[in-house]
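## tool: complex_structure
## caller: assistant
## args:
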Amino acid sequence: MATTELSAYPGEGFEPRLIERFVSLRNKRVLEIGCGDGRLTFQYAPHASSVLAIDPDRPSIDEALFQQGEGGAPNIDFRLGSIERLTRPGAPFDVALFSWSL
Amino acid sequence: MVHALRRAGGYLRRGGMLVSIRPHRTWRPSIAIVAGRSRVPVATLLNTAFEVNLAAAESALERVVDEGSFTLAGAQAARYRIYLARPSQVRTYLELINPPRPRFPRGGRARLNAMWTSAPRGARIEVTESLIVNGLRRP
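## result:
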């Protein structure tokens, strides 16, 4: 019997479509807070100009960096850390995305 | 949370958008058994501890709007469904969720197992989850 891969998150494309109801991410500079392992980041990053994606959980960031190494997405800058301690983020962002982070 | 929202706002250009995606606070996850066009509800999951966190997030978003750091651009709620092949996958599914995890109400898991035993061949377990997206614009 065919079932989806076990995940508590929506299928690919679901969240980007909801986000696009508020703002297009195309060619935008995006700051993602709480990116985890990059599950959502990799979905929209190909359309964005650049992405700074942060998460305080080292294993999650390590997994994101591994996935990035496997599949590209060179416009994502994954960093270990929190929004409270973010340093040198660069130019102002067009979009700040709190992805499943309270 | 309020501090994090303010910090994020400080990194946005004027007119930039802050987007929050998180589980819906009042649309609780539910479990059903589906087979063809048949859908039999089994249980609504409970997660009181997490609902406290979600309420705090809502309050924080309201606060940064009230204080003028952002204007509310809108909110969009949505449901999504996940299908599992058998009851044992429900436990695995719940373990994938970061704590505090949802749990069955008293007797809910036994009810699922009992209903599954009599479910028709080809039945699946449907988990309905929900989320809410808020858009806040920096003035």
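## assistant note: Residues 27-97 of chain A form a domain with the Rossmann fold fold (CATH 3.40.50.150). Chain A has a mean pLDDT of 91. Handing back to user.
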